[in-house]
């Protein structure tokens, strides 16, 4: 159930849950890999669509490759071809309810999907292309990610013919994955790095569960071409369990048993085949604790286990080349008898914060001989860190709203690891208690599940139900004030609390994490009352929360000989030389530019200065040509132009979203480009705000600001909310908003932090006349305080009433710029209010160049045709005509149409 990379969270839910099933080796396969297609009946009403990949030499060992949730056999085609290129016979298939296979989704039930896989092993036992270990016993391995990974474990636990397996980012106990409870009383210390606390009656992980069920429902509509079915392609048992959980937020005994049957935990003790467990360090769906539980169960039964954690998961990157190589090497040795023994070690990735390319994080991999705490391995090492802080009262609001935002299912990578950057300010006021360690005296790398003892008690005289539902998380506090959420999520707990005021004391397993913590930084444990990703109670409550004892942090040290980097050593050697040359060049350039840069920074410069800007796209289309203009402080500038004039392209270049082909943009004297620091002084609403429809307006604003990493007090949220004027709707889901409401929320979002330069694209779309009038006043007041506003709009009358200055673009070029009055007066049409209209008409008619003099309703309308208006006034006064008013006759619309070549005057 790993999400496809590069997609935004607002896309279809099925895309969010689609699996990155490329878990083995990628790359082009040789031409002699042959593929045969076959439909295989595995039950009376089930027919599977299968593909068999044959290597150049047969008979050969076989590998079953299971796809992930939302995928099909096509999802793993590249992986199958890569394994076949290694010399394996590979069998892929579309599971029940997916692709063109028939049947209903039963979530890896032993009687359904697992039985299907056993039937496929039976077919391999009769295939002459597959190496056989005995009658009816093929040499076979199995691998898969997420949904496919659980299938691999359950097949190996129920069919001893499986000779090796490599499950990836999958679950151990599906009930605990979807209804986690990370707290329990009187628990012994953890034995292994990521050992969780799988207490019963957990808290419903509704965000991820909803994604899962919706993906299955979408499959039904696409495959059948029929109307919507509430159950989609799920079995009736799964549908009933989902409906119950979605409506009650609780797990019943029947649902717990159903999910237990679909869990490797039920059969892991039967697995004897060598097992490579690969789990992601960025995963709020199936965390490291799930793989830890599987490793303990297999090892306790005498099985052979190797554990690898990689820098990715359902909220991060797909398995990298190193992981794919490990899986390929695992099958080479344990199925084909080739290559060195991969052993039974443990490795984890420590991210460096540096990215290779756009989406690939770099890291160092630390390895030890065995997974700590397993039979025969070294015991787990932990570091105790005392926590400071008195017990604190926390409030659970009625309805659980507003709720804290710590993670959103499947979007961590798509948003640039947003979950890791969310700060503790994501908590609504009064909803969380925080306890801190002292600044660390030495660096520390947390590897696994930190634990803490928490006390929960009632507050006399204040409301509280029989049990507390709370969410704990761990945060790193840097010396410069930054807060980084570790583990990407929270540890939910459901704890019965005595009615007599006695505190309930529980051990809490915090989210498992691999995180380096620097000297001088602190760790903080926060316990909150709400979380957007879970379904909690609706009753209001007040709890007293404290901690006892230390924060226990697992560590898995290794000497330098046991570490490796994901950056290849060859390029590193070249990089060292390049960096040396670059450093010398940088020093020279720095010395040359020091005075210029210092002058620009001290001068501050105009809010916006555009010089010779041009943008040409592939194919030769020139969207912007030699655009130049300057915007001074304290003005509201309108950027006008017909569709295709290049306005939005200019705005996108201004925001650093598009690189210009030529020219430059500076803001406040600093160059503008992708990632430029000066962009922090610019607020923008261009081409849609990208709100998350399932969150409230308030939560969207909080999430947006949290993503900036800036302190909450700098957001000036109240001023922004005053601008939005959404009232009670601010706490409703944005998906229910009208266009006008979304527009007002978008403008409020752009104004968060009160930026010095505000850029708005069509800000009055969807607003009614009173709201437009109010918005006009807001923008004027904003500029009057010394800030600057740039408005792109097609509503010329609104620009005329709102803006003080205008830049007119046509066909990618600036055709006019100046004050609104100058643009309007540019054609020479003027109106004079005088005491003697007829005499005034005669005087004006005698002026050189003047034409078309008319007297209408007591006013004299004149086409000055280049004659200055001041000269006309002087002539009237000299002739004894009293002038009470003189001004332009045209509207901005008339001037605009003339400038862009669409003058409608005869």
Automatic annotation (TrEMBL):
Keywords carried by this UniProt record:
ATP-binding, Hydrolase, Nucleotide-binding, Transport
User: Where would I find the ABC transporter domain in this sequence?
Assistant: 608-836
Single GO molecular function: ATP hydrolysis activity
Pfam families recorded for this chain?
ABC_tran, Peptidase_S15, PepX_C
Q: SUPFAM superfamilies, alphabetically?
A: alpha/beta-Hydrolases, Galactose-binding domain-like, P-loop containing nucleoside triphosphate hydrolases
Q: Which InterPro entries match?
A: AAA+_ATPase, AB_hydrolase_fold, ABC_transporter-like_ATP-bd, ABC_transporter-like_CS, Galactose-bd-like_sf, P-loop_NTPase, Xaa-Pro-like_dom, Xaa-Pro_dipept_C
Matching entries from Gene3D superfamilies are given as: alpha/beta hydrolase, Galactose-binding domain-like, P-loop containing nucleotide triphosphate hydrolases
| Family stated for the protein in its record | Belongs to the ABC transporter superfamily.
Q: What is this protein called?
A: ABC-2 type transport system ATP-binding protein
**Species this protein is from:** Pseudonocardia cypriaca
